[in-house]
Amino acid sequence: MELYAYVIMTNHVYAILGTHEKPIQEIIRDFKRHTSKELINTIENNQQESRRNWMLWIFKQAGKQNPNNEFYQFWQQHNQPI
After folding, report:
1. Residue 7: phi, psi to the nearest 5?
2. 3-state secondary structure of 2
3. Alpha carbon distance 81, 52 (integer Å)
4. What CA–CA distance (Å, rounded) separates 42 from 62?
5. pLDDT digits over 10-51, tens only?
6. Domains of the chain by residue range
7. Do β-strands 2-8 and 13-18 pair in parallel, antiparallel, or remain unpaired?
8. Nearest-angstrom CA–CA distance, 22 and 11
9. What's the pLDDT tens digit per position in 56-73?
């Protein structure tokens, strides 16, 4: 996979990438899985984050509404790869 450019916005991510190895949907799935686990872990372990309990509560409430999740919903379920 080649990552040519990316922009991280406050509520979404743009990426320009190319691949012949696997479908783009699988790359997006793996990216979401990895980043959500890392970010939730970082929030849980940051004792100085004043919004920690609130953020975890929000992610947990969203996760309860999605039967595909075990605990938290960090990213939206859909993908819009173009």
Report:
1. -140, 130
2. strand
3. 31
4. 18
5. 888 899 988 888 888 888 889 999 999 999 999 999 999 999
6. 23-82
7. antiparallel
8. 26
9. 999 999 999 988 888 999
